[in-house]
Amino acid sequence: MDYLETILRSFPLDIGSTKRLYLREPAQDTRLYEVDVTKSPILDSIEARVYLIDTPSGRRIACHPHLVADELSDLCLEAATELVLSLKELELMSDNSGILHILRGGLGYRVDKVLSQLPVINIRTQYRKDGYRAHSDDSRMIEVTYSDYHQTNFDSLIIPDTYATGRSVEAALQHMFDLGLSVENVIIYGFVAAPGVERVYNLLAEHGVRMYVFAICDVSQLYANNYDMPLYGLDEHLYNQEGVIKPLGSIVALETLRDMIPHYVPGMDQPGDWSERHTHLFNGYNNESGDIQGHLRKSIELMESLDELNNKQPWYTDDIHDLTQKEIENCRKVL
Questions:
Q1: Of 125, 139, 269, 329, which has the fewest Cβ atoms less than 10 A away?
Q2: Nearest to 76 by CA among 287, 262, 271
Q3: Cβ atoms 167, 199 nearer than 8 A
Q4: Whole-angstrom Cα distance, residue 175 to residue 193?
Q5: In sequence order, what are the residues at sequence separation of 6 or more whose Cβ sits closer than 8 angstroms to the Cβ of residue 28?
Q6: Cis before 104? omega within 30
Q7: What is the pLDDT of residues 70-107, one digit of tens each?
Q8: Model pTM?
Q9: Which residues pair with 251 in a beta bridge?
Q10: Parallel/antiparallel/unpaired status of strands 120-127 and 97-103
């Protein structure tokens, strides 16, 4: 049996809801797919346009947690450039567009560097009790601690961020709506999980705002910890807490999945500890570097735990062992 078929049989991957769009402007090695949200078993029915933007740089970021600092920043800039070309061709940009950064991680996606002519809003949201790989799904546990928001009217607002539960963006947007925000379209971009899409959509629908999603490579399911966002794999957190084996998958195009399988450690969180992978992130008052060493150590620990879990599964192969050990070694070298 072909290994791709084995993965498709072993995990709840939705490849049937994706349809490739052929655009003129993005590079030839960029692939854009639209998701039929009425057919996907992973997304609850929402009236939004959902796209998957598959770039070589996006796949590398998702598969390789050892990519950090300047190397990661360059890849993010490449991916953002392809996003902007797609937005322009789909006519989702106007002179009255803006960018919302959720501090600190939103800046890491580098969209503002490609669209340097647009105004940027900076809002910091912070979890009061949550920690690394331990997020609740309670919006009362998050608050806005910094905001420079003042403009109230946009045609389109682009929000580059990591969308796990979507609580940070929900809190930032609610803050802006409370201060009089008027916007026709919201464009969310980054690593995206289905619960995050649904949460932001529900808020925007209350205000009559159209939502467009541009997910890097896939729209994932979410670990039980409301944090990790795998392409596919077992919920390592749930297994360690309760001994339960739960396969997770994503909405992903077949071509994207085929290209990522040889490089992706099953179950690995694709964005990783996103803010901590970067340097020179604005925190509302000054620039600071993320805890890159901490991200690398945590990535090593997670991959070691995943390999211990994965190697007991019937779909585990020598190739998975080798790519896992290679990525662990890459993280150690960078560390």
A1: 329
A2: 271
A3: yes
A4: 22
A5: none
A6: yes
A7: 999 999 999 999 999 999 999 999 999 999 999 999 99
A8: 0.95
A9: 14, 219
A10: parallel
